[in-house]
Amino acid sequence: MTVNQDITKTNWNLATKIAFRFFCVYFFLHIFPFPLSYLETLLGNNPFSFYTNGMQQLSVWVGKNVLGINYEITIGFNGSGDTTSNYIVHFIIAVMSLIIMVIWSIIDFKRQNYDKVLLYFRAFIRYYVASILFVYGFGKVIPLQFSELNNFDLIKTFGDQSPMGLMWNFMEYSDTYTRFSGFAEVIAGALLLFRKTVVFGAIVVIGVMFNVFMMNMSYDIPGKLYSGLITMMGLFLLSPDIKRILNFFILNKTVYPKTILPYFSNSKYQKTVLIFKVLFIGFLIYNNLGGAIKNQEKWGKKAPKPALYGIYEVEEFIQNNDTLPPLATDSIRWKRIIVDKWYSGIQTMDEKIIRFKEETDTISKTLKLTSNTDSTDVMSFYFKQKDSLFYFETIYKGDTLKIKTEKKPREDFLLINRGFHWISERPFNR
């Protein structure tokens, strides 16, 4: 294998060499085992899971014995990327990178530059960032990450939303904006896949991912560490061209075209690399776009809805033949029955929501609600329908319950029925 010899002509200063050594190790330890992690897609398991698991176990040990953390450090995926374990892993990788950088600098102090290493490591970073942007981008182009406003979102008061819930609902409301943000991520990733567009791609990556980072910071979304890391990688990809960018955009100086040399001087190796590139790009598109389309039918808007999907306003609540008045402070009388895709619930008059798992049998006309916290806590209703009115009856914990409800269409909510208007004679701000 013949590496192109024309790429080693510069002399790096000491600070540049030290910075490169550190970030080379730092990013590699964060990225590994990419791209070998895709073997899980092909084999059904990840043979390199030992690295991730080992880092998590090490984070627990370091947290207890080095950092003196006295509360339980949980590990494993739970939807948050900002757990105590995640912060400790970042700390461990930073320390390891610093140590390796020092050793590397001592051993390799005479080297004039790392042009060859930079050429290939930059490609490694480019493809990693592109693969991540494809995951999140296609998950928005095919609305999946932000699916749709659920029935609980529609009845929840504005002040009772969490900052993350507020931002999530903002994105879920509009497929148009969700797709726009998804295309921005996909286009940024696509631009990184070709060296002629990598500078433009890196600029777009920084803009897109820094915006994500700021949203995570501003709305208490537990993805701050990872979005910050991807933003740093965008800066790393852009760093070799910083002077050219400053000359063009700021200093109004002449910028000449940059010579892009092939990875190998041997044409056979160039063709081999091209084949692998085409196959890998095809795999990324198929895996992410195909996966998003498939998962939309499982988790997204096309996922099946329960037979009783909807919001049921309780008009009459009879307990043991006593009709309970709709007092706002009552913690026993129900205000609403909510049936949604992933969980259902009961809202009492004092606005408390109790969540249940729902099973509906349309043949026997039964609704079964099982408590999320106690599988032995079960309510089995018989129901009947007359137009928009639904009647539920059950015996629960020795009490006979008869409940008259009216199903409220989602379209009755202003947020749903307002829609989009090209012409607005005055602002419609409610």
Automatic annotation (TrEMBL):
Keywords: Membrane, Transmembrane, Transmembrane helix
Keyword Membrane: yes
Chain ranges passing through the membrane: 18-39, 87-107, 119-139, 199-219, 225-251, 272-289
Protein name: DoxX protein
Organism: Aquimarina spongiae
